[in-house]
Each structure stands twice: as structure tokens, then as C-alpha cells.
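Re-run requested by the PI after the first attempt was lost when the workstation crashed. Everything re-entered from the original request form. Ligand of interest: coenzyme A.
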Amino acid sequence: MSWPCTDHVTAAAEDRVLRIRLHRPEKKNAITRDMYATMAAAIVQAADDSRIRVVLFEGLPGCFTAGNDLADFLNAPDAGTDSPAGRFLQAVAAFPKPLAAAVTGLAVGIGTTLLLHCDLVWACESATFQMPFVNLGLVPEFASSLLLPQLVGQRRASEMLMLGQPFDAAAARDAGLVNEVFPDEHLAEEVNERIRRLTDQPPAALRQTKQLLKRAWQAAIAEQMQIELDVFTKALAGPEAREALQAFMEKRRPDFSRFE
Ligand code: COA
């Protein structure tokens, strides 16, 4: 059976693992609508394929992903449930098997919020994380306004989301966002070793454990995602986001001084 692949996203199955790899180096792996659609299709397919026991998200050396493509945000501001991004979020949130991520560098926006839905996350020492939604006149997505405070505490979540500053791999590990941090040159072998251990585990017990770990939050996550999407969609069409996105395209600092 073949897996959805494009120039910018490859999905490859080997040894019971589906590796979803972002590959758009010229734009720091920024995720376009097409890339979301490809990843959503791969995840839905993996959920039904009994040969796949684990899905692993990977990026490029130095770059996991710079987040949503900001040109798409500006030109095709559709973040609703039926949009490619919306379908990706729902497929990830509903995925019944272990999801893992190997963070090889920059993890911005959805590059960090995606990790909140992964069961296991490993990062290299030079990885940096950032959730600059407010910086862009936007609001948190992917249930991060629920899952982040749960994981890192209210104080740290407010700081990460309201100030929107980058933080390093050690801070991410200390906050509980990342399981382990490895020297850059050892990340791949350490991740492969852990993935091998995971795929050797009995698959039904793994799936049931994931379900039990998530059961109490499942409905709240779905509800929060929907509420966030509504606020996010309005914010994306609003003047603060327009200013921030225009400023990014024009390579200047945004000016929010005129807004109330
Ligand atoms: N969407 C679209 N293009 C992006 C992008 C994004 N999210 N992130 C980076 N790019 C593009 C840049 O515009 C640039 O394109 P160009 O060469 O045609 O000008 C290219 O990728 C390289 O990025 P650059 O900014 O030169 O790299 P850098 O190493 O100096 O900085 C970042 C990297 C990620 C810190 C910076 O690009 C950035 O802040 N990007 C936006 C991140 C973001 O806000 N994501 C959305 C979160 S919701």
C-alpha cells in the first residue's frame, strides 16, 4: 500500500513505524495547506493500518518546523474544522496509537503545540521552541490553552503564550514538554532505539494505555479545540493579525500601538 507523499511531506513505513517527515528547507519547513492535507491523509491511513504501531514526526537538521505558513495565513485565512489544518488537528487528536516526535531544531507555533498531542517527544540540544500566537495577533490553537497549563503549569503557560518568546531544549525538558534531550549528532540513533522498544511492545496494550491516559480529557480537548478554532478564525481575519502578517512579509517589526 502506498502512503501520501509530496515534495514537502513524505510518509514512509518501515518496521511498523510510519515516519512523517517535513521537507521544505527553503521556508524552514513552514506548513502549507497542502502539507496539512498530506499529513492528515497519512495519519488517517495509519490509524486503520494494523501494520503501523507508531507514527513518528520528523523534520530536517536544524528545523522541525517554523509553524503554519504565514503567507497562507495572509492569503487563505481558513482555519475552520474542514480546512486541511483542521482535518490534521482532528486526525492527530483522535489517533489511537502512540505518536512520537523527534525535534531536530526550530519548533514554532504548531511545531510546539503538536508536541502536546504526542505521547513521546525527544529533542536535540540545539532545538528551540516558541508559541508566538499572541505576537501574531492570534490565540493558542490545538487545545494548547488547555493542554499546556496542564503540562507545564498555569504560570509557565501564561509566560510561554503571552510573551511568546523562544525557549531552549533544556527549558522544554524541565517544563515537561520533552521527554529527553540528546546531543544533536546522537538524536537519530537514540530516537530509533526508543522507537524500536516501542514497536516491540504488545500493540493492544499500548493502544489501551493511550486511551486510558487520555480518556478523562478527550471530550474537553475536542471542545477546547472547537472553541479555540472559532476565536482563532476571527482573530486571523482581524486587524492585529493583518498587521503582524503584513509586517512579517515586509520584514519589519509589527506596530500594534494603534489598536485598543
Ligand atoms: N511561514 C512562511 N514562511 C516562513 C515561515 C513561516 N512560518 N518561517 C520562515 N519562513 C520563510 C522566511 O520568510 C524566509 O523566506 P525567504 O527566504 O523567501 O525570505 C525563509 O523561510 C527563511 O526564514 P528566515 O526568517 O530567513 O530564517 P531565520 O533562521 O532568520 O528565522 C524563524 C527563522 C522561524 C525564527 C523566522 O523565520 C520566523 O519567525 N518565522 C515565522 C514563525 C512563525 O511565526 N510561525 C507561525 C506560528 S503560528
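Saved to the shared folder this time. Residues 218-237 form the longest helix (20 residues).
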